[in-house]
Write a structure and sequence with these properties.
The complex is a heterodimer of chains A (180) and B (177). Chain A is 36% helix and 19% strand. Chain A is an alpha/beta fold. In chain A, a hairpin with a 5-residue loop joins strand 5 and strand 6. Chain A contains 4 helices and 8 strands; from the N terminus they run ββαββββαβαβα. In chain A, the strands form 2 sheets. Chain A has a 5-stranded mixed β-sheet with strand order 6-5-4-7-8, with helices on one face. In chain A, strands 1-2 form a two-stranded antiparallel ribbon. Chain A has a domain of 105 residues: Nucleotidyltransferase, domain 5 (2-Layer Sandwich). Chain B is α/β, with parallel strands linked by helices. Chain B has a domain of 107 residues. Helix content of chain B is 37%, strand content 19%. Chain B has 6 helices and 6 strands. The radius of gyration of chain B is 25 Å and the shape is elongated. Classes of the chains: A alpha/beta (180), B alpha/beta (177). The interface between A and B is large, with 47 and 52 residues. Strand 3 of chain A pairs antiparallel with strand 6 of chain B, so a sheet runs across the interface.
Chain lengths: 180, 177
């Protein structure tokens, strides 16, 4: 193991010979690569197994700096509510809340936003007891809708301006959807 | 006269391409490897991040303050943890908050557990030390939304109204529920 072999021939000791051997010609230079390859593979295995290629991504959030009451037209308000068990409800304006699946919510957000051309304000209210993951899932559905909204509004020559807010859920809100 | 069969003396395989590829991969993995930050090695919980649709957004790696909401693996209780990527800012911030001065003196602590009031102080100090610091909320998807809501209120009071939620990308084969 680990022999660097120069020329492939071993110089034999001369035994009393008077005649000088012909000068050996170095034909090839051969280096035993085994230990090098061993180490290279070892390191490669280590880095392959310890690397996680998936880096976390982010979801950007903007919240209004002040907690002020803004007068909005009820007809231009889409309220999305998440109940403590993770069920999602929506209502437009002062309508009664209705349960909705995420897929439908995405389609609804697209439809209503395109219809009202940027005037729609989406408000998300989540119960304090709902798992945080469920809130992100709903936010993600709304974000996905955003792509289609931007595209469809662009077709009408409009620039998308997102109006979105997160609001705390009041006990009255909670009561309204408790029995649904 | 029959020809003598040539004796095979040795078996020689040209390893050059193999070694080439090996080194190429080795270089790739070595250069892309990102080691755990000091703060991460100090934490006693793992965060199961919520999943979101894959996109190109990435967590900024400079001047970032991360507020983690984690569930302790041993005791199972939820708490806020605060850490910053900028080391000099970090020691400046925790050195200015009374409760954490001990942590600052040891010069090794890179993550602190904080109550909501302490977080308020930490975030305010961070904003003073470097107003451009960006905030990220890295919460476990199993924690109750109340924790996040309270934290957003604290951020709002400190005028940090733009922040990030840290998520993992959802694997493409798994359709959104």
């Amino acid at each position: 193991m680990g022999v660097a072999d120069f020329g492939g021939e071993v110089k034999r000791e001369r035994r009393g010979g008077t005649r000088r051997r012909k000068k050996m010609r170095r034909l090839r230079y051969r280096l035993d690569m085994t230990p090098l390859v061993d180490i290279a593979f070892l390191l490669l295995t280590f880095f392959m197994l310890t690397t996680t290629l998936i880096t976390p991504q982010v979801m950007e959030m903007t919240i209004p700096p002040e907690r002020t009451q803004v007068e909005v037209r009820q007809s231009e308000l889409l309220t999305v509510q998440i109940r403590a068990d993770g069920k999602v409800f929506y209502n437009l304006g002062t309508d009664a809340p209705q349960p909705i699946t995420l897929k439908d919510l995405e389609a609804l957000a697209v439809r209503e936003n395109v219809r009202l051309q940027n005037r729609l304000i989406t408000v998300l209210k989540a119960s304090p007891n709902v798992p945080y993951g469920a809130v992100i899932t709903v936010l993600d559905a709304l974000n996905r809708a955003e792509v289609q909204i931007t595209e469809q509004l662009a077709r009408e020559g409009l620039r998308r301006e997102r109006r979105f807010a997160i609001a705390p859920m009041t006990p009255e809100d909670e009561q309204a959807i408790a029995q649904l | 006269m029959p020809k003598l069969a040539k004796r095979r003396v040795g078996f020689v395989l040209d390893m050059t391409p193999l070694v080439d590829i090996t080194f190429l991969l080795l270089t790739f993995f070595m250069l892309t490897a990102k080691f755990k930050s000091e703060a991460e090695t100090q934490q006693r919980f793992t965060i199961v991040r919520p999943q979101a649709t894959a996109d190109t957004s990435r967590l900024p790696d400079r001047d970032l303050a991360i507020i983690k909401i984690g569930i302790d693996t041993v005791s199972g209780d939820t708490a806020y943890y605060y850490e910053m990527t900028n080391e000099s800012d970090w020691f400046q911030v925790i050195g200015s908050v009374e409760q954490f001065q001990q942590a600052q003196e040891s010069q090794r602590v890179r993550q602190v557990r904080a109550s909501l009031q302490e977080l308020d102080e930490l975030i305010r100090r961070t904003r003073i030390v470097r107003p451009t610091t960006r905030f990220a909320i890295d919460a476990d998807r199993r924690v109750r939304y109340r924790w996040v809501e309270d934290l957003m209120e604290v951020l709002r009071q400190n005028r940090a109204t733009i922040f990030n939620f840290v998520t993992d990308r959802r694997p493409p084969e798994q359709p959104p529920m």
